[in-house]
Amino acid sequence: MSLVTEFSATPLPPRENRLLAALPLVVILAVAYLAVPLLANEYLIEAILLPFLALSLAGLGLNLLTGYAGQVSLGSAAFMAVGAFAAFNFDLRLGLPLPASMLLAAVAAAAIGLVFGLPSLRLRGFYLAVSTLAAQFFVQWALNKFGWFSNGSASGIIAAPAIGIAGLPLSGPVGRYLFALVTVTAITFLLHRIVNGPQGVNLIAVRDNETAARVIGVPVLRTKLFAFALSSAIIGIAGVIWAFAYLRTVEPAGFNLDRSFQILFIVIIGGLATIRGAFLGAGLIVVFPLVLSRLTGLFFDGVADPGTIELLERIALGTVIILFLIAEPSGLSAILSRLKRRLAAPRAG
Amino acid sequence: MTSALLRAHPAAHPVRDRTEAQALPKGETRAATGAVLALEAVSLGFGGIKALTAVSLDVKAGEIRAVIGPNGAGKSSLINVISGLYQADAGEIRFGAQRFRAVPPQRLAVLGVARTFQNLALFPALTVAENILSGLVFQRRSGVLGHLLSLPAARREQARQNGQVRKVAERLHLTAALDRKVGTLPYGLQKRVELARALVAEPRLLLLDEPMAGMTATEKAEMAGFVRQARDASGLSVILIEHDIGVVMGLSDHIAVLDHGVKIADGTPDQVRRDPEVIRAYLGAEAA
C-alpha cells in the first residue's frame, strides 16, 4: 500500500534543487583536491585515505557487477591481484609509463574476469558465487606457483616501483594520494555515465528479470560479460592503487578471500546499485576499525591484553554492521537519502 | 465460467457488435497478405503430461485472436511456445516466411514479435521511461563508447528512441508517470507499462498473456481500448489470453478454445458461443 502513496507523494525536483543537490559533491571534491593535500598529515593520508580510495574503487567495480548486473562475485581480491601483478610486470619487463601499464593491467584483469564470467551464462545466485571462488583460489595459486609473476622473489613479496607520471615523481604521500584520487574520480565519473546511460538499462534489466530481458531483445549474454569485464578492469585498477600507492609492496597474500569478502561487505553495507554506496561502505570499513582501536586504546590500555582488545574490536565492528543492516537493508546510501529528505522536509513545509 | 459465457450475449454487449462491424471487413482485406503467425500441429509435453496436442492456428494481419479455455487448458503454454520459452516436441511455428521448431527467444523482438507476461515481468528498479526504452534495445546500434564519447550518431539514436518512448507513453496515457520507478506504481499502471514496452518497437505480432488479470472493470475497459487502438493504428495482430469472457467477446475477431491442450473450437465469437463442445468444456471444468 505504501507503494501507491509513494507514487503520488514524491514530486520531481525542479532545476534549482538539482543544482543544490550537486553542491555536496562540489564541496567533497574541493576538500579532496585542495584541503587534504594542503592540510592533511601523513597519518591521515597513509593509513586512512589511501586504503579508503583503493577499496572504494574496488567497491565501485564490484557494485557494477553485483549491484547493477545482479551477478554475485566472491573473487574481487583475485582481480585486484591480477591488476597489481600485471602492472608490476608491465613496468618491470616493458618499462612502460605508469598510465600505460595501469591501462594494460586493467585489460589483463578484464580478460581474466571475462573467463571467470563465463559460468554466469549458466549459473545464478549462490552457484555463481561459488564458481567465482575459483577465480580467487586459482589466481592466488598461480601467483604463488609461478615465480615469474613476482620476478623470482623468494618470499613472493616484491617492492612496487616508485610511481611518477611524465617525469613528475609522485612517490611522496601527497603525490600518491593525488594519483589515487585522480584515478578514482575519473573512473567514478565514467561509471556514473555508463550506469545512467543505455547500458545501465541493460544491466538492471538483466538483474531484475532475465527472462523478460531476453524476450524483449536485451542482449543478456553480452550484458553479463560486459559487466564482468568492466567490473574486473576497475577492480584491477583498484589493485594497482592498493599495491603501488598504498602498500608499496605487491604480494599475493594481501589479496586473499578476506579481502574479497571485505569488498563485498563494502558494497552491501554501502548500498547495492549506488555509486556513493561504495564510498560510504569503504568509509565505514576502513575508518571505523581505526576509530575503534583509538577508542579501545584510550579506555582499555593496560586493562586488557592486546589479543582481547582486538577481539573486542571485531565484535564491535560486527555488531555495528548488523545494526546498520537491520536499520536499513538497502545500506548507508539509503540512510543518507532518508536523512536528506528529513532535512529538506521542514524547508518544504 | 459458464454463466459468464452465457451472459456475454450480443444483446447484453452492444460493444461487441460495433467491433465486429468495424473490424471484420478490415480483417478480410488484410487476409490477402497471408498469416502473420501459423502454428502447425504443435505438441508440447512435460514428462507424461500433454500440455498441447497438435494445435494448429493461423493468425492474419490485423486480427485480434483470443485464446480461451479452462484453467490448465494450455493457453500460457501456447504463448510460451510461440515466444520460444518452451520448445515444442513436434510441429512448426511460422512467422511470415520464417519457420521454426524452436523459436529462439533472444531473436523474438527482431522477428517482430512482442509479448507481455501473466505475472508482471517489468524491471522494478528502472523508471517507466527506461522500462519502455528497454523494448527498443534490440534496435540499438551505438555501443558504450559511442555513449561515453557522446558521438553524434549515439546522441541522435538516443533522441530518436526517447521520442518513440514518449509517443507510445502518450498513446497509453503514461506520460505523467514516465519518470517514476516502475516498482512504485499501482498494479494497473504497471500492466499498462508492460503493454507500452511491448508496443514501442511496433511489432507485427503481440502476445498478451492475461493483460487484464486482477484489474477493475474500468481498468479492463481502458486496457481493451488500448489494445484495439494499437491494432487499428498499426495493423498488428494480437493473440490474447483472457479469462473475462465479456472482454474477450467484445475485443476479439476470432476465438480459439483450448481444452486439455486440444483445440476444440475456432471461429468468430458468435460461432464459439454456440459451439456445444465449448459449452461442455466449460461446464465440465466447472463441475470438476
TrEMBL record, chain A:
<feature type="transmembrane region" description="Helical">
    <location>
        <begin position="263"/>
        <end position="292"/>
    </location>
</feature>
<feature type="transmembrane region" description="Helical">
    <location>
        <begin position="45"/>
        <end position="65"/>
    </location>
</feature>
<keyword id="KW-1003">Cell membrane</keyword>
<dbReference type="InterPro" id="IPR043428">
    <property type="entry name" value="LivM-like"/>
</dbReference>
<keyword id="KW-0472">Membrane</keyword>
<keyword id="KW-0812">Transmembrane</keyword>
<dbReference type="GO" id="GO:0005886">
    <property type="term" value="C:plasma membrane"/>
</dbReference>
<feature type="transmembrane region" description="Helical">
    <location>
        <begin position="149"/>
        <end position="170"/>
    </location>
</feature>
<dbReference type="Pfam" id="PF02653">
    <property type="entry name" value="BPD_transp_2"/>
</dbReference>
<feature type="transmembrane region" description="Helical">
    <location>
        <begin position="177"/>
        <end position="195"/>
    </location>
</feature>
<keyword id="KW-1133">Transmembrane helix</keyword>
<feature type="transmembrane region" description="Helical">
    <location>
        <begin position="96"/>
        <end position="118"/>
    </location>
</feature>
<feature type="transmembrane region" description="Helical">
    <location>
        <begin position="225"/>
        <end position="247"/>
    </location>
</feature>
<feature type="transmembrane region" description="Helical">
    <location>
        <begin position="125"/>
        <end position="143"/>
    </location>
</feature>
<feature type="transmembrane region" description="Helical">
    <location>
        <begin position="315"/>
        <end position="337"/>
    </location>
</feature>
<dbReference type="InterPro" id="IPR001851">
    <property type="entry name" value="ABC_transp_permease"/>
</dbReference>
<feature type="transmembrane region" description="Helical">
    <location>
        <begin position="20"/>
        <end position="39"/>
    </location>
</feature>
<feature type="transmembrane region" description="Helical">
    <location>
        <begin position="72"/>
        <end position="90"/>
    </location>
</feature>
<protein>
    <submittedName>
        <fullName>Branched-chain amino acid ABC transporter permease</fullName>
    </submittedName>
</protein>
<dbReference type="GO" id="GO:0015658">
    <property type="term" value="F:branched-chain amino acid transmembrane transporter activity"/>
</dbReference>
Automatic annotation (TrEMBL), chain B:
<dbReference type="Pfam" id="PF00005">
    <property type="entry name" value="ABC_tran"/>
</dbReference>
<keyword id="KW-0813">Transport</keyword>
<dbReference type="InterPro" id="IPR003593">
    <property type="entry name" value="AAA+_ATPase"/>
</dbReference>
<feature type="domain" description="ABC transporter">
    <location>
        <begin position="37"/>
        <end position="285"/>
    </location>
</feature>
<keyword id="KW-0067">ATP-binding</keyword>
<dbReference type="InterPro" id="IPR051120">
    <property type="entry name" value="ABC_AA/LPS_Transport"/>
</dbReference>
<dbReference type="InterPro" id="IPR032823">
    <property type="entry name" value="BCA_ABC_TP_C"/>
</dbReference>
<dbReference type="GO" id="GO:0005524">
    <property type="term" value="F:ATP binding"/>
</dbReference>
<dbReference type="InterPro" id="IPR027417">
    <property type="entry name" value="P-loop_NTPase"/>
</dbReference>
<keyword id="KW-0547">Nucleotide-binding</keyword>
<protein>
    <submittedName>
        <fullName>ABC transporter ATP-binding protein</fullName>
    </submittedName>
</protein>
<feature type="region of interest" description="Disordered">
    <location>
        <begin position="1"/>
        <end position="26"/>
    </location>
</feature>
<dbReference type="InterPro" id="IPR003439">
    <property type="entry name" value="ABC_transporter-like_ATP-bd"/>
</dbReference>
<dbReference type="Pfam" id="PF12399">
    <property type="entry name" value="BCA_ABC_TP_C"/>
</dbReference>
<dbReference type="GO" id="GO:0016887">
    <property type="term" value="F:ATP hydrolysis activity"/>
</dbReference>
<dbReference type="GO" id="GO:0005886">
    <property type="term" value="C:plasma membrane"/>
</dbReference>
